[in-house]
């Protein structure tokens, strides 16, 4: 059974949704305070959305130097799943676990609505239950979700199939319509849209559920990393 | 003790939406002679160090690690005249 740490920073506000999503999919989850320094006993990390540390300095900047961060980096180095959603994605780029940066939406406004997206890589451990070019609907809610990277990094992302999720209609100016990427090793995922808010058809979309099922079965379906 | 002024701005190729909005506002005032507004931030801090090489090392190291995100930003600093207490 995969046991996930849901990191809570001051200003995190999607922590309960993320916890709920993991548990609903059959995984174990537990909240971990940002002041902790160890993630022993956990198989993976989920970094929720929100406005950690009030977005002081830059989104994700303060969280990237919080006490728990060294343990998150260790988990990533060990090849365990590390997922950052929305502010979590911003934090992962600030830490340097994912390339590029998230800057202010080109329209300068905060956007909160459902977004139509495409799964562009179904060969990752996170998107195993999806099929290639499958359209999904996840809500987006961000002011700084415009993915920025250099030409070099962009070529790299494409060459290594690290782009896994794209907007069908680019809402924020992200380079190459990028909504979610993984690291080269394939165990760190960052995405701006919120799959944890897409678990029930009655609330608009259930398309996010499979991602959490893939997280639940991370070890069963794949070579164990331990 | 020295006082440092650290200026952080978005790199040239990074879109500055705040700057663009200000550009438009200034034009609405009739100031067509103003263009290319870029918005940055400035940090002031005291450093208990007087040797320029050491100051350079500390300020650069902290800027790269936390104060600036060098993927999208650049920074420059100066040591302000006059000692602070």
From TrEMBL, chain A:
Alphabetical GO biological process terms: 'de novo' IMP biosynthetic process
Active-site residues (renumbered): 86, 194, 196
GO cellular component: cytoplasm
Location(s), subcellular: Cytoplasm
Catalytic activity: N(2)-formyl-N(1)-(5-phospho-beta-D-ribosyl)glycinamide + L-glutamine + ATP + H2O = 2-formamido-N(1)-(5-O-phospho-beta-D-ribosyl)acetamidine + L-glutamate + ADP + phosphate + H(+); L-glutamine + H2O = L-glutamate + NH4(+)
This protein's record includes keyword Disulfide bond: no
Pathways involved: Purine metabolism; IMP biosynthesis via de novo pathway; 5-amino-1-(5-phospho-D-ribosyl)imidazole from N(2)-formyl-N(1)-(5-phospho-D-ribosyl)glycinamide: step 1/2
Gene3D superfamilies: 3.40.50.880
GO molecular function: ATP binding; glutaminase activity; phosphoribosylformylglycinamidine synthase activity
E.C. number: 6.3.5.3, 3.5.1.2
SUPFAM superfamilies noted in UniProt: Class I glutamine amidotransferase-like
Alphabetical UniProt keywords: ATP-binding, Cytoplasm, Glutamine amidotransferase, Hydrolase, Ligase, Nucleotide-binding, Purine biosynthesis
Keyword Methyltransferase on entry: no
Domain of life of the organism encoding this protein: Bacteria
NCBIfam families the UniProt entry points to: FGAM_synth_I, PRK03619.1
Biological function: Part of the phosphoribosylformylglycinamidine synthase complex involved in the purines biosynthetic pathway. Catalyzes the ATP-dependent conversion of formylglycinamide ribonucleotide (FGAR) and glutamine to yield formylglycinamidine ribonucleotide (FGAM) and glutamate. The FGAM synthase complex is composed of three subunits. PurQ produces an ammonia molecule by converting glutamine to glutamate. PurL transfers the ammonia molecule to FGAR to form FGAM in an ATP-dependent manner.
Subunit structure: Part of the FGAM synthase complex composed of 1 PurL, 1 PurQ and 2 PurS subunits.
PANTHER family named in the record: PHOSPHORIBOSYLFORMYLGLYCINAMIDINE SYNTHASE SUBUNIT PURQ
Protein's name according to its UniProt entry: Phosphoribosylformylglycinamidine synthase subunit PurQ
TrEMBL record, chain B:
GO CC annotation, single: cytoplasm
Location within or outside the cell: Cytoplasm
InterPro entries on file: PurS (IPR003850), PurS-like_sf (IPR036604)
Catalytic activity: N(2)-formyl-N(1)-(5-phospho-beta-D-ribosyl)glycinamide + L-glutamine + ATP + H2O = 2-formamido-N(1)-(5-O-phospho-beta-D-ribosyl)acetamidine + L-glutamate + ADP + phosphate + H(+)
Keyword Nucleotide-binding: yes
Record pathway: Purine metabolism; IMP biosynthesis via de novo pathway; 5-amino-1-(5-phospho-D-ribosyl)imidazole from N(2)-formyl-N(1)-(5-phospho-D-ribosyl)glycinamide: step 1/2
E.C. no: 6.3.5.3
Keywords of this entry: ATP-binding, Cytoplasm, Ligase, Nucleotide-binding, Purine biosynthesis
Enzyme type, top EC level: ligase
Gene Ontology MF terms in the entry: ATP binding; phosphoribosylformylglycinamidine synthase activity
One matching Pfam family: PurS
GO biological process: 'de novo' IMP biosynthetic process
Main localization (coarse): cytoplasm
Cross-referenced HAMAP family: PurS
Subunit-level organization: Part of the FGAM synthase complex composed of 1 PurL, 1 PurQ and 2 PurS subunits.
Protein family according to the UniProt entry: Belongs to the PurS family.
Job of this protein: Part of the phosphoribosylformylglycinamidine synthase complex involved in the purines biosynthetic pathway. Catalyzes the ATP-dependent conversion of formylglycinamide ribonucleotide (FGAR) and glutamine to yield formylglycinamidine ribonucleotide (FGAM) and glutamate. The FGAM synthase complex is composed of three subunits. PurQ produces an ammonia molecule by converting glutamine to glutamate. PurL transfers the ammonia molecule to FGAR to form FGAM in an ATP-dependent manner.
Protein name as annotated: Phosphoribosylformylglycinamidine synthase subunit PurS
Gene of this entry: purS
């Amino acid at each position: 059974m995969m046991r996930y740490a849901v990191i809570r920073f001051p200003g995190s506000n999607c922590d309960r949704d993320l916890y709920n999503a993991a548990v609903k999919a059959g995984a174990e989850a537990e909240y971990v305070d940002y002041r902790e320094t160890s993630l022993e006993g956990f198989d993976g990390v989920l970094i929720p959305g929100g406005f950690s540390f009030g977005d002081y300095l830059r989104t994700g900047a303060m969280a990237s130097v919080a006490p728990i961060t060294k343990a998150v980096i260790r988990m990533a180095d060990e090849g365990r799943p590390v997922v950052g959603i929305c502010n979590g994605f911003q934090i992962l780029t600030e830490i340097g676990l994912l390339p590029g940066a998230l800057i202010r939406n080109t329209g300068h406004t905060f956007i909160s609505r459902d977004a139509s997206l495409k799964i562009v890589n179904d060969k990752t451990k996170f998107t195993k239950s999806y099929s290639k070019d499958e359209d999904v609907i996840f809500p987006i809610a961000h002011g700084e979700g415009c993915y920025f990277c250099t030409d070099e990094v962009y070529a790299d992302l494409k060459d290594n199939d690290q782009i896994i999720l794209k907007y069908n209609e680019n809402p924020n100016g992200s380079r190459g319509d990028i909504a979610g990427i993984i690291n080269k090793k394939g165990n760190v995922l960052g995405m701006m849209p919120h799959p944890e808010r897409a678990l029930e058809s009655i609330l608009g979309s259930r398309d996010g559920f499979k991602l959490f099922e893939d997280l639940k079965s991370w070890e069963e379906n794949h070579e164990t990393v331990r | 003790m020295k006082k440092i002024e650290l200026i952080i701005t978005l790199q040239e190729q990074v879109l500055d939406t705040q700057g663009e909005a200000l550009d438009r506002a200034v034009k609405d005032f009739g100031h067509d002679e103003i263009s290319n507004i870029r918005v940055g931030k400035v940090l002031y801090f005291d450093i208990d160090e007087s040797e320029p090489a050491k100051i350079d090392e500390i300020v650069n190291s902290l800027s790269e690690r936390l104060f600036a995100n060098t993927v999208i930003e650049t920074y420059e600093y100066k040591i302000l005249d006059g000692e602070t207490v």
